[in-house]
Amino acid sequence: MTATAARPGSTGAGGPAERFARPVLLAFLLVAAADLAGLLTGAETVHLVAKPLLMPLLAGYAALRGAPRLLVAALLFGWGGDVFLLADNDLAFLVGMGSCAVGHVCYLTLFGRGEGRGRAPAPLVTGAGYAVVLVVFLVLIWPDLPADLRIPLTGYSLLLTAMAWRAGVFGPYAAAGGALFLLSDALIATGIAEWPQAPAPDFWVMLTYIAAQALLTLGVLTKHKPGA
């Protein structure tokens, strides 16, 4: 992941911040690998330790590379969701979903500012495609969702779908990240609805989620310019 410095001499190639950024990125990749390995092997303790470390490390890396504050905020609100979703109860799930939703608002605000600074707007045809997928998915899954979660999950899904669509403003990496984020949360929803799951479902949820956040970060850092 690369990005232009936010301030001359602070995050440029070989600058002091970059020397810290690379070890932080390596730590993120190692923790991500440990988390995924823990999920594959059934080492629940590894997952409980590793998952809460992921987004702070990625946010730290982004900050060291001069990322917009909204990107850092989005990652940290995602971290809040990660932590609350570790608890196995409905209240924690709703609080975690709310934290993730605030993160999506941060992303949407960032993408809106990017569009306003001369980047091409997200294609309407892509938005229409996302809308069709969302409607079909909600119609199929609605009867199997717990009644008290139907409305919150629908609202969250609308917000997430809008984020996934608008992510394309920051290029193909961010667009892919938005799509993977949508897939990851769709996998969570199918688990809540007790649909048939692939082997090691938590592994696939975390793999797509980690890739989504990393690609969104990469996309923003690649396209971000100082002061933009």
How many whole angstroms does the radius of gyration measure?
Answer: 18 Å
Q: Strand tally, please? A: 0
Cα end-to-end separation: 18 Å
**Please, how many helices?**
8
Percent helix range:
over 70%
Average predicted local confidence, pLDDT: 89
| SSE arrangement, N to C | HHHHHHHH
Beta-strand share of residues: under 5%
Any overview of this molecule?
It holds the Pfam family YhhN. Belongs to the TMEM86 family. Residues 1-13 have low confidence and may be disordered. The chain has 228 residues and is an all-alpha fold. Helix content is 75%, strand content 0%. It is built from eight helices and no strands.
Produce the secondary structure layout.
Blueprint: H1 16-41, H2 44-64, H3 69-84, H4 90-116, H5 124-141, H6 147-166, H7 172-192, H8 201-223
Helix pairs in contact: 1-2, 1-8, 2-3, 2-8, 3-4, 4-6, 5-6, 6-7, 7-8
Can you give keywords for this protein?
8 helices; disordered N terminus; membrane; transmembrane; transmembrane helix; TMEM86B-like
Question: What can be said about this structure in brief?
Answer:
The protein has 228 residues and is mainly alpha-helical. It has helices at 16-41, 44-64, 69-84, 90-116, 124-141, 147-166, 172-192, 201-223.
